[in-house]
Amino acid sequence: MIRPQVLAFALVASSLALGGCASFVDKPQRPVLFDLGPLPPITAAPAAPAEPRIPVVLPDIEASGALDGTPVLYRLGYSDDHQLRAYAQSRWSAPVPQLVRQRLRQQLGRERPVLSLDESAALDRAGLGALYLLRLELEEFSQVFDTPERSRGVLRLRATLLATTSSGEQLVGQRSIAVEGVASTPDASGGVRALTQAIDAAAADIDGWLRQVRPSR
Length: 217
Known about the structure:
- The protein is of the alpha/beta class.
- It has a single domain, classed as ABC-type transport auxiliary lipoprotein component (Rossmann fold).
- Helices cover 29% and strands 33% of the residues.
- Strands 1, 2, 3, 4, 5, 6, 7 and 8 form an 8-stranded mixed beta sheet that branches.
- β6 and β7 form a beta hairpin.
- α2 packs across α4.
- It is elongated.
């Protein structure tokens, strides 16, 4: 006959054992979602009236392969910079081309009207002269580790500016844009912030380029 004390001890030991086993079972974790955060404030107003800026149409950004998805990507520059890796538990809140386009439209829109293809199609073009189309191709968008503790966000774009007139499209210019941001921490969060800095730097580069374009009459 089993004594009550022995039975009680066995039940307690069994419960502790089951609890210990449960603690070793990995629970599914949801990926951490990142976006590009709020726009930085405008530091100062222009001292003189600004020259009129040409309106541009910004279609969806072209991208291929891993750049067309939501993973937060990185490279180990000190080991094998030809291998593109993805953080296991970190994701962008939307496909990368969509987030980059949204941020660029917000930044460029501070200086000029920035339209989508649908919006431009709805405009009455009579008397407006050329309509400028800014096509962007995303070539690189990743966090590059130069050492295990030091990394940067690298963005490369190919920009093509076209003037669309009644006689067809005309090439205005094309340029490659390569910008970087410094990561404050060696992880996905630091990479996201560095890539956000890089997008803002690209927007400033594109804006300076567009300022050199004189509207066609």
